[in-house]
């Protein structure tokens, strides 16, 4: 759900419900895009409210932009959380990364947008994911190779088991 730009929130909720039903019907996980209004977590609140009614739904939260409280609620629902370039230059994400178990984290770039440091402001490329992974390892104080292996295992567990 995307509340960042003006749009029909009720229509978004209606379509999202159909996507949840389809994902559950075909036994596939959701890859959820959720973008709140500026300086709020409104879209996350609505999303979590809807998902609590569908406890069997499996999902990954793409390009997580929420806070620790939201991350905890998503974790309680059993969702993995994916981080992109902004974690390399927005320190607020450190608390979330520290809190989450490594086996519930995924990494991404959202190319061509949101390039990580040191490429901020430029076109983002998929291979920049290495900067995101390095930041996860740094924040969690875990060996980089161990983090890489676990993140690959996480992707396989979430998306390849179906």
Automatic annotation (TrEMBL):
- Record-level Gene Ontology MF annotations: hydrolase activity, acting on ester bonds
This protein's UniProt keywords: Hydrolase
**Record carries keyword Kinase:** no
Q: Which Pfam families match?
A: TatD_DNase
Superkingdom is Bacteria
Please verify whether the record's keywords include Hydrolase: yes
InterPro entries membership: DNase_TatD-rel_CS, Metal_Hydrolase, TatD-like
- Protein name per UniProt: Hydrolase TatD
Species of origin reads Candidatus Nomurabacteria bacterium RIFCSPHIGHO2_01_FULL_39_9
